[in-house]
């Protein structure tokens, strides 16, 4: 800066003005590399997530869009996941799809199981149960093989294309977890069955009927739904999924689900519709990331490799986005 001031003083006034304008333009154009943006006050966090962050909570991790055979930050995210899982005592890991980029797996013996999963998420704290869903890239391969791998791996728990179970948070509070098969609900893949051959094998009407019945009969205090495709998303890459808005969102609202978690867009997002009950969480940051954007529903948007920690207590849920260094990118809580 001192050099520029001395230089500017020595040149002609007209030239000085031109250079000043040029410097202003350059200053306005260049942005410092930053990962996160928020529309809320005092939301972005920098402290490290550790054993004290969610002490005595029922904690688990959510990972999505992670299948890169160790590339595109996948290995770094996996290494930090192991540290954070150990710190917070993660009870299990839920995934929101695109488990195997870019074309799924061919069989239960596909080498990708080793190079993309077993050899990447090898830390002892990650040897807990994994509950996956299928993404659009998984549908380019053999989706049944991802389900059948449950018979080979002790931690890979994938009973069917969509499934549900409940877990106790404490002696009096439980959470209902619902895992959807969203690619089959999206018209784009129905039209491209040569590229997504297993889509034609699924009965989408039956899945929606099943979802309605599960939600209608859920008595748990917390209801959390997982899928690959967003209901709402501010991203300019994919954005909202109209079929999910039309078919899934009304059921989430009608039966008072509190959260819908997804990936597909490779960023972190927290969205909430005015007057709605559901908090929509995008956590597609397990490997490759993309630029973020916001819209009128955005509470937070950010782009950094990482994962999400969910911490449940009797009357409160904490949702925390965690970065490569274990840093808390964003954290919010919701009371029940």
Characteristic key phrases:
single chain, 336 residues, alpha/beta, Purple Acid Phosphatase, chain A, domain 2, 2 domains, 8-stranded mixed sheet, 6-stranded mixed sheet, 9 helices, 14 strands, globular, disordered N terminus
Q: How does this model look, in words?
A:
- This protein has 336 residues and is α/β, with parallel strands linked by helices.
- The chain has helices at residues 2-9, 13-29, 74-88, 112-118, 143-148, 187-191, 204-216, 242-247, 249-254, and strands at 36-38, 58-63, 92-95, 129-131, 163-168, 174-179, 222-226, 259-262, 268-272, 279-283, 298-302, 306-312, 316-323, 328-335.
- It has nine helices and 14 strands.
Strand order of the largest sheet: 1-11-9-10-8-7-6-5
Helix content: 10-25%
Largest sheet properties: 8 strands, mixed
Number of domains: 2
Spans with pLDDT under 50 lasting ≥5 residues? 1-43
Average pLDDT works out at 89
CATH class of the largest domain: Alpha Beta
Shape, principal axes of CA atoms:
globular
Assigned CATH architecture of the largest domain:
4-Layer Sandwich
Strand portion: 15-25%
Full CATH superfamily name of the largest domain? Metallo-dependent phosphatases
Number of helices: 9
Strands, count: 14
Question: H/E series, N to C?
Answer: HHEEHEHEHEEHHEHHEEEEEEE
CATH topology of the largest domain: Purple Acid Phosphatase, chain A, domain 2
Rg of Cα set? 22 Å
Query: Which structural category fits the helices and strands?
Result: alpha/beta
Distance between the termini: 53 Å
């Amino acid at each position: 800066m001192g050099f520029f001031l001395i230089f500017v003083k020595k040149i002609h006034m007209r030239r000085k003005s031109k250079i000043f304008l040029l410097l202003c333009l350059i200053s306005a154009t260049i942005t410092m590399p930053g990962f996160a943006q928020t529309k809320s006050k005092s939301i972005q966090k920098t402290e490290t997530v550790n054993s004290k962050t969610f002490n005595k909570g029922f904690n688990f991790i959510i990972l999505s869009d992670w299948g890169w055979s160790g590339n595109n930050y996948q290995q770094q995210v996996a290494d930090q996941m192991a540290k954070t899982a150990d710190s917070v005592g993660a009870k299990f890991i839920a995934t929101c799809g695109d488990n195997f980029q870019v074309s799924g797996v061919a069989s239960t013996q596909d080498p990708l199981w080793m190079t993309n999963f077993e050899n990447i998420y090898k830390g002892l704290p990650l040897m807990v149960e994994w509950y996956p869903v299928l993404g659009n890239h998984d549908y380019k391969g053999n989706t049944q093989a991802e389900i059948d791998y449950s018979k080979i791996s002790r931690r890979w728990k994938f009973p069917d294309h969509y499934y549900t179970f409940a877990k106790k948070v404490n002696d009096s509070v439980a959470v209902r977890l619902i895992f959807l098969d969203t690619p089959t609900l999206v018209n784009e893949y129905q039209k491209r069955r040569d590229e997504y051959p297993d889509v034609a094998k699924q009965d989408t009407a039956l899945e929606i009927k099943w979802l309605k019945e599960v939600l209608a009969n859920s008595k748990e205090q917390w209801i959390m739904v997982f899928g690959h495709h967003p209901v709402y998303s501010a991203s300019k890459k994919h954005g909202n999924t109209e079929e999910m808005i039309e078919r899934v969102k009304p059921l989430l609202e009608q039966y008072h689900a509190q959260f819908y978690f997804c990936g597909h867009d490779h960023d972190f997002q927290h969205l909430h519709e005015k007057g709605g009950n559901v908090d929509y969480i995008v956590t597609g940051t397990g490997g490759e990331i993309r630029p973020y954007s916001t819209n009128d529903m955005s509470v937070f948007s950010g782009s950094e490799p990482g994962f999400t920690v969910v911490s449940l207590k009797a009357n409160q849920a904490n949702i925390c986005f965690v970065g490569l260094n274990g840093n808390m990118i964003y954290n919010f809580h919701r009371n029940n």
